[in-house]
């Protein structure tokens, strides 16, 4: 979601319905399903952060502050947070593939319209609408894989889907910066919109028909009661806030990063700044290792380790040197993914009932944390420079440490 464990808002993996065909590794249908979901994951997370690497250029052309420009990111993540639960419910009635198709195509078409918008208010409104559309994929992709893929292959299938998320999130910043260096930010948005639409076409052409989906009526009252119960569960509530606080740090650092690197004493061009987002790949590696660490040393220890590493990384970025900033970003990324993986997995294991809704609530609050972190850090940077961003991040990790004192 980052950008790499999104999809947590979808129902928890369950076995395909007994007696029906399953997509097994090695079969053509399985390869088609993985290709489709990978392509959709790239499209969704490419569009989600499509403006993050371009914020300094957007600020300059539209003559707006960093905080105002950051709304082009936070409006989208906030809209996803709001739309996740409703779209998850709609997929139960109208089908996984139908909702995912509508999601990825609608978001891609909006992405193609963005380069032509000149008013900030209209731009932010379109980005919010795009966020609503994007919510349809993470809300249903994991449910589709859990229902259609052979139980023994579900984990690996979801891992490949999440890899698409990671690559999409990273590519949106990297490609945008590269194109903007040789053209401008509007052309970058157009290029990314075309890439997303191509991914949407690949998804539609390759996704296998859902053989195990069974439509059920939407019962808003039942969903509301389940969600209310989760929000009254003290343990789940702590886990929700922990995920959000880790995301505040990650969103803060990477939202404001472009402003710092494009200003003195660095003055780096857009293409070089975009390359800094390749550090996201560190998160992919971390996500695969942290489970073993938690099994050996315990979840709370892993959480504190994540907080310590993220905090250390933020402090290291204070040094005005490219090497120090890269080192700090690597530490922040490792710390964030450590906390996110532990918090999100703990939600699933501690929710006695309604695990799908429990995970959806986690992802909703997680994206709210992203929105708050980006906008708050942009305001802090505008008023106090990078020091303001550091204060926001350290305060978030301090609050997370207090929350984690209780049993996780």
UniProtKB/TrEMBL annotation:
Report the Pfam families cross-referenced here: MFS_1 (PF07690)
Q: Which CDD domains match?
A: MFS_NepI_like
The cross-references to InterPro entries, in alphabetical order and at most eight, read: MFS, MFS_dom, MFS_trans_sf, Sugar_transporter_CS
This chain belongs to which protein, by name?
Answer: MFS transporter
| Parts of the chain that traverse the membrane | 33-55, 67-87, 99-118, 124-146, 158-179, 185-207, 235-259, 271-290, 302-319, 325-347, 359-378, 384-405
User: Hey, which family's this protein in?
Assistant: Belongs to the major facilitator superfamily.
Keyword set for this entry?
Cell membrane, Membrane, Transmembrane, Transmembrane helix, Transport
**Start and end of every Major facilitator superfamily (MFS) profile domain?**
29-408
Q: Where in the cell is it found?
A: Cell membrane
Topology in the lipid bilayer: Multi-pass membrane protein
